[in-house]
Amino acid sequence: MPESPAAAAAPAEPGRLRLRPPRERVDRRAVAWWTAQSVLTVVPLLAVLAACAAFIEPARFWLLLAAAAVGVLGLAYVLVMPRWRYRVHRWEVTDDAVYTASGWLWQEWRVAPMSRIQTVDSGRGPVQRMFGLTSVTVTTASAAGPISIDGLAHWDATEVVDRLTEITQQTQGDAT
Amino acid sequence: MTPQTRPEQRPEERSQQLSQQRPEQQPAAEENVAAPWLRPHPLTVVSTALSMAVLLGGAMLIAGAAVMFNGSFAIGIPLALSGFAAAAAITAIEWHLVRHTRYRVTEERVESRTRLLAEKHRTIARDRVRSVDVSADIWARLVGLRKVTIGTGQNAATAQGDELKLELVTAAEADRLRRELLRRSPAPAASVAEAAQEVAAAQADLSEAISRMRLGWFGVAPLSIATPALGVGAIGGLYKLVDWFSNEYAARTAVDVYQLLMASALVLIPVAAVAVLVAGAVAATALEVEAWWNYRLDREADGTLRIRRGLLNTKSVSLQPSRLRGVELQQRLLLRRLGFARVKAVATGLGTKEQNETAAKSDLGPDMPVAEAQRIAANVLREDDSPVRSPLLRRHPRAALRRRLTRAVAACAAACAVGGAAVAGAGMLGWDWVPAWVWAAPLALLPFALLYAVDLYRGLGSAPQGRYLLLRRGSLARRTVALRTDGIIGWSVKRSPFQRRAGLATIGATTAAGAGVYRAPDLDLSDGLGMADESVPGLLAPFLRRA
Questions:
Q1: What is the pTM for the complete model shown?
Q2: Taking CB atoms and an 8 Å limit, are A97 and B526 in contact across chains?
Q3: Where exactly are the transmembrane stretches of this chain (chain A) (predicted)?
């Protein structure tokens, strides 16, 4: 068991605790994947608004105004979100735990001990596949949802899955 | 999943198997001797017939009578009788189903099969059985039968659930199944008669009474914020019934009541409010009495906790101590003032918060005085003292209060903005009946929103306490959870942009039990991480740094 800084910390030590980022970054291609995803969300929305503006004469001004607003926000989203995510999304597998960070505006850090892992899966969505990326999903017995590492290169993902499977097989129990 | 060797089974049925079969060859003949196929009790059909006759038949009878009352016998009579015809048809189907259903408990598994047109076969491995719940609705009780629900307690959302239901068996057989399946060493009884003896012997052995219903506890049932709604519902239901028979009479009554109220509003509106509240109080008390009558919480000789309750519909929930991960004390707004609380089990296999039916299973008792609730909490966890003690909780930082107040103001501002837009829209459309002050109406709610925000903040608290992690939150329903730290199977730290600016974080302890994750919202990041690290030493430590 690694030594615990908190246990070592006497009340005299004033330093504030924070989480260090997990060691590994996801694959650089994830930025392109997230960009593609965001484009696929924003463009249909704009298309619907534009189509409405074309056919509904009386409300054209308001619809175009809405389309412009969506366009500006959407462009910011497409440009900012993927890069921000890439800075946040990180992962780490130690001998004792899986540690991940995800999100961009709203961020989440998750830790699960190896002894509580129930299943390890990997999967690729159609868009993800185009960019040669894979997601690894680690479930525990909790209903809080799985821990997922998105945007790994295929090869890295295989390696992570193998490693997790190997470690979790050594630690038996019903994982609850 | 290993292939099944049962010859008559087709491949598609294999996929219905819930649990993994043992790889050895099926010892079919041998098992048939040891564990005969049993059938549901034939009176099951009578129970179905009774319920259908009363519910379907009764409803259609009233509807038919209403039509006849309004003068149309040609429609009324067939309508009144159609319910009974439908009931008879359903009963006939049920009779066939029951006749073709068999179940058995072998050394390794519980099986049930129904062979009617298609065959339905369900199997649960005995070492995966986590719960055996016995319930009886009023119709089953009239013929003295019980429904047995055998669960594996998996949270995974399997398509067809993870339960095996036996409908219906005798009370003695239900008790035999419960004892046998919850005991880890299987020893199937050869016959029901033998089982009855075993039950009698088992009942003689020691089971410790933890708590019993006291009549006074029903007294607080009306003190719920749902009571006015229940009152409106009860009066509305009565009105609807009158309306069926004569909508003219109902409409006239409604107009009369309305005119009476308007004529002397000052006197009669309070009277009407009281009437609604009284109706609501009666309805709330009736529901509580139905649910909790004859409530008993026992610890059986083998340590299993057993909750039994119900007036018309009875329920028995068994909870093995190995499934407990902590307890929760839930205090609703009004009951909190009176010092009442409800204890809930935080246990695996009781289902998540979203599944309402299963969530009710986690109730260890009705609303009761806090002291009694604490005593139960301590007892079920086998602690000398209840771990759910509020004075131990640490307040969350003031920034958490600021966030809640900001949200209250923002919600009011948003409501005002919607009102303003409505006024502007109405002005453009020329609807001059929309008064201009509408946009300001939400401001009247601002004081309440602010009070709610303050109470939410006062509800926040958290602290690691020995083998437990204490977390409290909520205002309308304040929940204090004592989660056993060895039941914590991970951490989740969430931060919104606002939380990052204020140096706050929401720390969540994930667990296999109860809600799946218990969160402490808006803790100071450093304090929260310290709390997590103290609760489960070693897990978070490698990822922490001191700035």
A1: 0.79
A2: no
A3: 30-56, 62-80
